[in-house]
């Protein structure tokens, strides 16, 4: 039986620990605005959402978390034209519970603004670009508003499974590494 003191088992457990630490997190939740949350930008930080979007590299499977007082604000997803003109009529999606989560299910451009009149004109709006699997969907007339809309009717959609077309790489999930750490010593007995 292999003991923890043998060089072979030390190497094995070190390898298992290393592989466990290398496991990749597939998706994240990002609070829009970070500590500023979702609200009217201050005059000293009027580009808070533009800067926030430039700082974060979002991908399919990630989620945007909008935190705001529900009695004072809301979040709407809009088309590019509505975003540019601050038109809040006919949004693609309305979120108004104060803890709104938007799941990114496909690549493309996404446009959000406050649902309160006047807030968009005061820079409370967010544009993000999401790349996925090496491709990007641009807002062309052929794709229209439906192309940038989420594929689910409510705020909480399912997280997509990673596409099979992703280039292969050495990724061993933590669970598999842990199982190997338990089963391999039993096989070496």
TrEMBL record:
Secretion signal span: 1-27
Membrane topology: Lipid-anchor; GPI-anchor
Predominant localisation class: membrane
Cellular component annotations (GO), alphabetically ordered: plasma membrane; side of membrane
InterPro entries assigned to the protein according to its UniProt record, in alphabetical order: Cupredoxin, ENL_dom, Phytocyanin-like, Phytocyanin_dom
Protein name: Early nodulin-like protein 8
CDD domains in UniProt: OsENODL1_like
Location in the cell: Cell membrane
UniProt entry keywords in alphabetical sequence: Cell membrane, Disulfide bond, Glycoprotein, GPI-anchor, Lipoprotein, Membrane, Signal
Annotated Phytocyanin domain residues: 28-132
A GO MF label: electron transfer activity
UniProt record similarity statement: Belongs to the early nodulin-like (ENODL) family.
